[in-house]
Amino acid sequence: MDVKAHWVGYAWAAGATVACTLAGLAMRSRFDLVNIAMVYLLAVVIVALRFPRGPAIAASGLSVAAFDFLFVPPRGAFTVDDVQYLLTFAVMMAVALIISRLVESVHRQAAAQAALEIEAETERIRSALLASISHDLRTPLAVMAGASSSLVESGERLTAADRLALAKSVFDQAREMSEHVAKVLQMTRIETGAIKLDRDWAALSEIVGSVLARLSERMAAHRVIVELPDDLPLVRVDATLIEQALGNLLENCARHTPPGTVVRLRAHRHGNEIVVSVEDFSGGLSDGDVERVFAKFHRGSIEAAGTGLGLGLAICRAIVRLHQGNAWAERVPAGGTAFRFTLPLEEAPLVPAEAASG
Amino acid sequence: MAELRPTILIVEDEPDIRQFLRASFGVEGYRVVESATGRRGIIDAGTHKPDLAIVDLGLPDLDGIEVVRRIREWSPMPIVVLSARVQERSKIEALDAGADDYVTKPFGIGELLARVRAALRHAARKGSGTPILRFGPAVVDLERRTTSRGGEDVRLTPIEFRLLGALAKHAGMVVTHRQLLTEVWGPGHQNDTHYLRIYMKQLRDKLEIDPVQPRHLLTETGIGYRLILDE
Predict the structure, then answer these.
(1) Which of A73, A262, B60, B92 has the most CB atoms around it within 10 Å of its CB?
(2) CA distances from A304 to A275, B81, B205 (A)
(3) Chain A environment of B89 (Cβ under 8 Å)
């Protein structure tokens, strides 16, 4: 690539010189030598802008040589008897060097700028994490501290119903917080490479069954439709992690769509992989959200209270990628959003047929 | 005179967790024995002869799995282990070492009480040995080897029958992949998890109303299966 770019630069230097020479020859009858020199200077400037110093110097050298040889009397010889053409050469060379330097420094600045932007992105993620910790973890902590202190200090004077409500809110918040903490830990483990896949043959239908059982309470207000072909092949995955990935997609639907929304969970074979989809039939995401929704700490364009850390989908994607699959979101024509991921298929070992009996 | 209240041994190093377990189990009518270390727990299991042990897997002095193994050497009492979310592997090891069930920390007391009740029920049933299993629409007679669903005869293959039998032996409890594979196919097939996937699907297709969202032949993802019988 580098070597190639190099040659392209020198070829341009030669080409530009030839082009200027042709232009100069055409101009010769009507223009002064000074103007023809300006044409060459233009060529040098163009080469210096586009290529590194080497081709720029070559362009100025070739230009002066061609100019001297073909235009400066005596023509057809390199005798520079007039000092002013030495000056022309010096000026061209200086222009070539100055422009090369300017271009280089612009490139360096761009690189530094890019590095700064990466740093800024890291910083953005870090502050988003802090913000989410302060909101999603401190709010439940405040509720827990408040509710439990009420129980401690005025437990006996509270009605039984109030006591129960306070205790229940402590329990609910603790559960919620424990989920958040688990997600932060999981993301950290994935990012530091601390997760080792424990792959084994698994049936997607079982993973679906167990995730629906686990989330039955959370999905209670939604209408979940499951569509799994009966002959879906086994997958060799870390079932615990895939269960989590699928669970995060469902939780995301539960959290971001109104109660009563239909959520369809589907899977089908597509060539050498299985595509798993969770589709909700509510408003759907904006174009920008469809692109960014799997990014870490992305919470959707409409900020709502208690929308979670924005880690669920990022964890889902990370888990799927560990399995050499892919995860993305797209809008469905009927209005709504489809969250899909793929899992590569491997040839499952045969299960010996049982002698017909029973 | 025999004590009617079941005795629960709690082997847990966190005093705060012991405190809420003691309070909750006390209210539910259990007698509670507490051990703050694994070694103490093994001794208490011998001296107090509890009906059930709850063993935390994250003990400071001794691996919880080791505590399970040592108790299991001489006692058939049900053991429920408490594990943190990151201890997936040790959870399976504890089950393979003889624990009957697990609860993942943090847990609500309702979940633990349900597990404990199921484990005690299972222990009580072990002696009586009723050969008839009832769950949902299914009735299975292990002795006469007949199965019906909603009153109609269902034919199970010999392997399906053995698999159901292996689950029924630990009804209500979780049974690991390894335990099922060893019991149904033999020790040489401990890693053939795909056998289980195929035969569990067949069992569910024959005996569950909705095989994808089973009510009785449950999947414990990454761990094993659990058969829930009707109460």
Answers:
(1) B92
(2) 30, 39, 43
(3) 198
B159 touches chain A (CB under 8 A): yes
Residue A299: band (very low, low, confident or very high) from pLDDT cuts 50, 70, 90: low
CA–CA separation, A41 and B34 (whole Å): 93
Size of interface A-B (CB pairs under 8 A): 75
pTM: 0.74
Percent of chain B with pLDDT strictly greater than 70: 96
Q: Do A239 and B194 touch (CB under 8 A)?
A: no
Phi/psi at A200 (5° precision) = -155, 165
**How high is the ipTM of this complex?**
0.90
* Chain B residue at shortest CA distance from A212: B213
Do B218 and A210 count as a contact with CB atoms less than 8 A apart? yes
